[in-house]
Amino acid sequence: MSHVETRQLGNSGINVPLLTFGGNVFGWTVDQNTSFSLLDALVEKGLGFIDTADVYSRWVPGNKGGESETIIGNWLKKSGKRDSIVLATKVGMELSPDKKGLKPQYIRQAVEESLRRLQTDYIDLYQAHRDDEETPLAETLTAFDSLIKEGKVRAIGASNYGAARLQEALQISEREGLARYETLQPEYNLYDRAGYEAELEKVVTEHGLGVINYYSLASGFLSGKYRIAADASKSARGQSVIEKYLNPRGLKILAALDEISSAHHVSPTQVALAWQIARPSITAPIVSATSLKQLDDLVGATQLKLTQSEIEQLAAASQK
Prior knowledge:
Helix content is 43%, strand content 12%. The relative contact order is 0.13. Strands 9-8-7-6-5-4-3-10 form an eight-stranded parallel sheet, with helices on one face. It has a two-stranded antiparallel sheet with strand order 1-2. By secondary structure, it is an alpha/beta fold. The chain has a domain at 6-185: Alpha-Beta Barrel (TIM Barrel), CATH 3.20.20. Helix 3 links the parallel strand 5 (86-91) and strand 6 (123-128). The protein contains eleven helices and ten strands.
């Protein structure tokens, strides 16, 4: 197993590598066999921190949700590698009209279904997939706290919470003596910075939370594969990527990534991720790969150390 530096997820006592692998590709853009070889390679490369959700990949025609967890569970059963990975999943997005939100009885039902699909008796990091404003935070946190006490979950996290609600949740946990959210999963990358940096970063830094950010490559834009409008045909999401990112600011970011990546003889992907890894509040950006070749590219990001001036150059290029 190759050695990748690790960091602690908040104060959970759980150590993870510098990248999180996004499990939304399992059962969507990769079939079960490819998923198994990717999972084997992740463990071998020291990147065994897998993030999924009960709702992945409900959006695919013919799917109903639970496909990603099922594939991971089948791999765990076949490989016996449960102790080699840190497993994160989520609850709260709508699986069906009666299966959504963060009410205690639903969390209890959902965790059992996730454990069954994952073929394991515990989840390392169980996350609220999005804030449920109709359910009092104290009720949700009490439900999560009891799952930890029962040994079904090791730590809990929040995804897609605003700063005020995250702050409030942390205060409730402290006041009531409940388990607290140890992690935040926000959108964050070189292009989409404001949402996280404006308010959330202050809350996570103040409370010592871990951060595993999604869309770390801006849906593939920061890999440099979309540079002109015609590149939209390169993937299913190409058109929306180009509409959002292919503009003067996006091109300025790509130019800085190009310059730094050629100086280091690495890919723009590695530079974009290394910039995030270097940010003190970020624990492990979420990345996905659909091939072993892409996976090697990602591993390279964990070895790349940018200079302070390179970090500042990228920050300047991405200023609004």
